[in-house]
Amino acid sequence: MTVLLAVEAVTKAFGGVTANDGIDLVVAEGAIVALVGPNGSGKTTLFNCVVGAHPIDKGKIFFRSEEISSLRPGAIARRGLVRTFQHTRTYTQLTCMENLLVSAPLKTRYLRRLLERPSARQRAQAMELLDFVGLQGESDFRAGDLSYGQQKLLELSMVLMSEPVLLLLDEPLSGINPTLVQDLMRRLRQINAETGVALLVIEHNIPAVMDLCDSAYCLANGKVLASGTPEQVQNDPAVLDAYLGGTDSFSSVAARDGASAEGNVPGDETPEEMAPIAQRPGRKPGFPFLARKRPPRKTGGESPKTRPLVPDRQKPGIPPQAGKEAELSRGLEIEGLVAGYGGREILHDIDLTVGPAQAVCLIGPNGSGKSTVLQSIYGFAEVMRGTVRLNGQEIVSLAPQAKLRDAGIAYIMQHSSIFPDMTVEENLLMGGYLLKTKAEAQEAAEQVLAKYDALARARGERARVLSGGERRLLEISRALIMNPKVLLVDEPSIGLAPRAVEMVFEILAELRDHEGKTLVLVEQNAKKGLAFANTACVLTAGQVVLAGPADTVAQDPTIGKLFLGE
Amino acid sequence: MGLGETAEKPIWHVHSWPRWIRYFLLPLLGVVLLVALPHLFPDRVTFLADLWAMIIFALTWDVVGGQMGYNSFGNIFFFGVGMYVCAIVQKEMLETAGESADYFLALGLGAGLGALVCIVLAALLGSVILGMRGHYFAVCTLGLGVAGAEIAAGIDYIGAGSGMSVPLYPIDAGNQERFFYYCFLVLALGALFFFRRLYAGRFGLVLNAIRDDEEKAESMGLRTTLHKTFAWMSAACFLGLLGAGIGNQSGYIDPRDVAFPASTFGIYMILAVLMGGRGTLWGPVLGSFVFHVAKEFFWTEFLGWNRVALGLLILFVVVFAPGGILGWVQDRRRRLDEEEVEHPPDGEGGVSFAQGGAQ
From residue A78, how far is each of A81, A162, B180, B217, B222 by CA, in Å? Predict the structure, then answer.
C-alpha cells in the first residue's frame, strides 16, 4: 500500500473552539475513504486544512510524500488534490461547457499556453463528462440557471475534468435525487477503478458511503473517534453512541435501507437525544427545547391513515373556527402556474392546493422544478401565467417583502442563508426587519429564544460557529419572527446528520400540528418527506405527474419510474 | 440551439452570414470607412480621435473591471505614467540631438518606453494590490490616480504643479489632428483584437471564473494571481500608449487635469463600460460610442446642464438595463432563441429540463 495522503496530528482551532484536535488520517493510493461524523464534528474543517484553505496550527500533512502543510490552495490543487464544496460552487455566469473547459488542467506557466484555445479533445472530454453526470442537454446553459442538484453534478464533473489524483468530496450525495444516488455511487466507483483516482468522501448518507468505501474514519468533537474497515467503524459502539445516541445500530439501518433504491434514509427511527450539539464542549447533551416545549404527542398523529386529504380543508389540528374565519382559511391554492427564470419556462401548468395547518411535500428528480414552485409562490421566479391564492386572496402580484409582511408567507431557502458574521440574536432580529419597530422584532426574537434553548445558549455568538443542524434551526426560527401562516421550506434535511434531520422534522411537525402553520416542503429525501407530509406532489420536468395523500403516493408503484423520468 | 443548422436564421445572427461577407466584405468596408472618416468630417477630427481614445479607455477598464470583476478606480494612473515617460524621453532626445532629431522616432520610442514602464509598474503593484478582493481592492486603487497626480505635481524635473510642455508637432508633417486620429484608431483596433484573442481562449475563461468565484477558481488550481496580474498589465500597456498619444495631442501636460484626470476620464471609462455592458468585448466599444456622442451632444445643446443630462442618461441605462446596452440586447436575443427552442415551428416538444439529470 502506497500512502497518498497522510494527515499527522493536525490541530486547528478557531478562537476558543478546537475544530480539529490531533487528527491522524491516511488515504492509500487508489483507495476510497469515508469521513463521517455528526454535524459540527470537524469534517469540513479537516478538508479545508488539507487543501490549504485554513492554515493549520499544529501537525503535518503529506501528499505523495511531500509536505504540503504550508502550501497555498492553488499549489495544492495543481498537485492533483482537488476538493468539492459542501455548498456547491460553480462559475455561475459561465455555461456548463465553459465551466468544464476552464477546469481542464494547466500545469505550465508559459504565456502561450495560457492564451491557448480549448482544444477539440478538451471539448470532447468535457462533453463526455457532462454526459457522465447527465447534464449533456444543459451544456449551453449558464451554470447559475441550473437547479441545486444539477449544480452539484456539474461541480463533480468539473473536478473530474481537472484530472485529479485525490478527490475530496464534501457530501456528494446531498441534494441528489435518491434514485440517482445508486447510479452516482456506481459512477464514483467506476472512476476510481478506471482512473485510479483516490476518493476521500464526507457523507451523511451512511449506508451509501459505507457501501462505497474501503476504509472509514468517524470524527466527533474534532477527534478521530474510530477508524478501520467500514464494518469496524459501523459497529464501533463509540460511533453508534456519538452518531445515533445508541438507539439503533448502523448495520441494521444499512441492512434495511441500503438494499432499496431509495435507501439513503439512515435513522428513520426517532432517537430521544440529539448528538450534534451534545458533542460540543460545554454543551449539555440533547435538545432540551424539544423536551421542554413539546406538548404531549398524539399517538395517532404520525399515522398517515388518519390524515385528511386535500379536499377536506377544514382539518382538525387547528382550533375549530368560526364560520367567517373558516371561509377565509382556504389555505394556499395554485392554479395553472407557468413560471421560470429569465424567460425560460420551467414550470408548465402546475396545480397545487394545501389547506391550513397541512403540509404538502414536493418530490421529484433534480431539475424537475420543485424549488421553482416555492420561488414562484414567494416571488423569486418569474410567474408567466396562472394564479396563486392564499385564503382566497391573489398574491402573485405582491413583491416578496409584501408577501412576508402582509400575506404571511415565509421562505426558507435551500442553501444556507444565515448571516454568518452576525450573532444568533441579530440574525433573528433581521427576520423582523419588516416589522414596524425594533421592539416588536425583539419581542418575537425573545419568544423564539425562549422556545429553542439551543439558540438561546448561542445568542451572543456569531452564527458561523453553529453546526449544520443549529443553522437550519436558526433559519426556521428566523422565518417565524414575522409569524407567517405559510412556510415554504426548501430541502430542510439537506446536508444534515440523521439526528439533526429528526430534529428539523420534529420542529416542523410541531409548527404544523400545534401552531397551525401551513407548510410547503421540497424534500430530496422522499421517504422522510412523505412520512411527514399530509399530501404529496411528484414533479417531473416541470409538471405534476402524481398527487394525492402522502401515504398513497409513497406506496404508488409508479413512483420509482416517475423519478427516473422514463 | 446551435446543434442543428436551421434553414432560416434571424438576420441578427451574424455568425450565420456567408464567410466571404464576414471575413472580407465587412472588414474591407469597415477599414475604408474608418480611414475616410477624418476626410469626410474635417471639422470633427479631434472629436473622432477622442472617440477612439474613449474606446481604448473602456476596453482596458473592462479587462479587470468587467471580465475579471475587480472594480478598479486607478487605471488612470497608467495613463498618466505613460504620458510623462513619453514626454520625458522626447524632451531628452530632442534636447541632446537638437533640431536634427526626428519627432516621430522620439514619440515612438517614448511611447514604447512608457508602455514598458506601465507594464512593469502594473506587475509590481498588481502582485501586491490584486491580492486584495472586492471593496479593498477598489478603495486601494482609488488612491492610485490621486497619488499619481500629487507625486507628479511634486517633481520639479517634470515641471511640478505647473506642468510640462511636450515637443511641438513638426509643421511640415501634415495635419496633426489627423495623425493622432490614425494613431488612436490603430491603437483601438489593436486593443480590440488583442482582447478578443485574450477572451477567446482559456485566459478569458479564467478571468470570468475569477469574477464568478475566485475561491473556487483557486481551489481548482487555476493560477489566479498570474492571470489577474497579466490582465492588469495588458490594460496598463494600452493605457500607457494612449497616455503617450494624448499628451502629444494636447501639447501640454498638467498633472491633475491632463495626466491623471481621475475625476473625469478615470470615471468616464467606467461609465462607458457600464452603459455598453461590462464583461463583454463589444459592450465597452458600444458604450464608449454612446457615451462620447451623448457627452458631446449634451455639451453643445445643454451647456451648464450637460453633466446633469449625462448623469440622467447613465442612470436610465443602469436602472432599465443593468447589463448595459449589449447585455439588454443579448438578453432579448437569448429569449427569442429560447422561444424558438421551447416552441419550435414543427411542434416538437421543448428541451426537457429534468430528464438530463435523471437518465
Answer: 7, 9, 47, 11, 8
Reported ipTM: the value is 0.84
Grid cell locating B328: 439588454
Q: Nearest CA to CA, how far is A68 from chain B (Å)?
A: 14
Residue A304 cell numbers, joined: 398517515
Dihedral of the alpha carbons of A463, A464, A469, A475, in degrees to the nearest 10: 50
Distances A106 to A53, A63, A91, A263, B223 between C-alpha atoms, Å = 21, 20, 18, 39, 9
Contact check, Cβ <8 Å, B221/A94: no
Question: What is the CA B101 to chain-centroid distance, rounded?
Answer: 33
Q: What is the C-alpha to C-alpha distance for residues A202 and A168, in angstroms, rounded to an integer?
A: 8
How far, in Å, CA of B196 to CA of B193, rounded? Answer: 5
Residue A385 parent element (H or E): strand A382-390
From the list A337, A329, A334, A323, the residue with the least C-alpha distance to A355 is: A329
Which DSSP helix (H) or strand (E) runs through B223? none
> With the C-alpha atoms ordered B77, B80, B84, B85, is the resulting torsion angle positive or negative?
positive
β partners of residue A27: A5
Quick one: closest CA in B to A343, which residue? B335
Residue located via cell numbers 412576508: A404
A435: left (phi over 0), alpha (psi -120 to 50) or beta: beta
Residue owning grid cell 495631442: B249
Q: Verify whether the Cβ–Cβ distance B357 to A180 is below 8 Å.
A: yes
- Residue A372's SS3 state is helix
Tens of pLDDT along chain B (359 residues)?
444 444 456 666 777 778 888 888 888 998 899 988 988 998 889 999 999 999 999 999 999 999 999 999 999 999 999 999 999 999 998 888 776 668 899 999 999 999 999 999 999 999 888 888 878 888 889 888 889 999 999 998 988 888 898 888 887 777 889 999 999 999 999 999 999 999 988 899 999 999 999 999 999 988 898 899 999 999 999 999 999 999 999 989 999 889 999 888 999 999 999 999 999 999 999 999 999 999 999 988 888 888 899 889 888 988 888 889 998 888 888 777 766 665 554 444 333 333 333 33
Query: What's the pTM value of the predicted model, to 2 decimals?
Result: 0.72
Centre a 10 Å sphere on the Cβ of residue A83 and count the other Cβ atoms it contains. 27
CA pair distance B112, B245, nearest whole angstrom? 11
Q: Describe chain A by its helix, strand, coil percentages, rounded to 5.
A: 40, 25, 35
Cα separation of B152 and B163, whole Å? 9
User: Do B210 and B202 meet the contact criterion of CB atoms below 8 Å apart?
Assistant: no
Query: How far from A420 is each of A56, A175, A278, B25, CA to CA, in Å?
Result: 22, 22, 22, 57
CA distances from A476 to A378, A412, A494 (A): 16, 7, 14
Question: For chain A, how far is it from start to end, CA to CA, in angstroms?
Answer: 43
B66 Cβ contact list (under 8 Å, min separation 6): B273, B278, B279, B280, B283, B284
Residue type, B159: G
- Selecting from A114, A365, A539 the residue whose C-beta is nearest the C-beta of B202 gives A114
How far CA B282 is from CA of A156, A234, B64, B325, in Å, comes to 33, 59, 15, 10
Q: Which of B227, B279, B356 sits opposite A136 (nearest CB)?
A: B356
Q: Residue A272: CA atoms inside 13 Å, Cβ hemisphere, count?
A: 2
Mutation to test the A interface, candidates B353, B355, B359, most A Cβ within 10 Å: B353
Instruction: Please report, for residues A189, A368, A501, A547, A563, the alpha-carbon distance to residue A176 in angstroms, rounded to integers and kept in the order given.
Output: 17, 12, 16, 21, 12
Pair B88, B110: CB distance under 8 Å: yes
